[in-house]
Amino acid sequence: MVVVEDLGLSLFLDQTGEYVVSYVLPDSVAAEYDKIQAGDVVREVDGFSLHRKPVAEVNKVLMTTKPDKTVAMLVCKTQDGSVESNLVIMARPKSAPLPSPSLTKARESMLHPDITDMGSTGDLSASMAVHPSFEVY
């Protein structure tokens, strides 16, 4: 799982090698852009393809942009059978925010999922596909 606290979003690596938005923190930088929602696929960050990249490498790419600079993300969503791609350019806050309790809870639920809610196949990846966003308390 990749958590980008200063932008207010988290991503998970799905079974196809795509990075999927799992959570957008309300009132965050990412929430201001209605083009990014839970379930969307982030294909590129600043021209760097995320497809099948290790989580550590994606974390490094997302953290190299300095505060108060922009981040460009190629975001794709499937709607009514068609794929829509948007280039979303977000400005990072001037200073990094304190860790968000909501994102921390989302990170914990991704790292320690409730195994009683694993879908009909008993497969965690199937559960994530059925439930692309997670309720945050």
How would you describe the overall organization of this protein?
With 137 residues, the protein is α+β, with helices and mostly antiparallel strands. It has one domain (2-91, 110-121): Roll (Pdz3 Domain). It is built from 4 helices and 7 strands. Strands 1, 2, 3, 4, 5, 6 and 7 form a 7-stranded antiparallel sheet that branches. Strand 1 and strand 2 form a beta hairpin. The chain starts with a strand and ends in a 7-residue tail after the last helix. The model is unreliable at 110-137 (pLDDT under 50).
Secondary structure elements and pairings:
Elements: E1 2-4, E2 9-13, E3 19-24, H1 29-32, E4 41-45, E5 48-49, H2 55-63, E6 70-79, E7 82-91, H3 101-111, H4 124-130
Antiparallel strand pairs: 1-2, 2-3, 3-4, 4-5, 4-6, 6-7
Strand content: 25-35%
Number of helices: 4
Number of strands: 7
Low-pLDDT segments? 110-137
Strand pairing plus helix content: what structural class? alpha+beta
Counting structural domains, the number is 1
Oligomer: single chain
Radius of gyration: 15 Å
Report the CATH C-level class. Mainly Beta
Order of helices and strands: EEEHEEHEEHH
Principal-axis shape equals globular
CATH architecture: Roll
CATH-wise, what's the superfamily?
PDZ domain
Query: Would you tell me which CATH topology applies?
Result: Pdz3 Domain
The largest sheet is:
7 strands, antiparallel
Q: What percent of residues adopt helix (DSSP H or I)?
A: 10-25%
What's the rounded overall pLDDT mean?
A: 77
N-to-C span:
19 Å
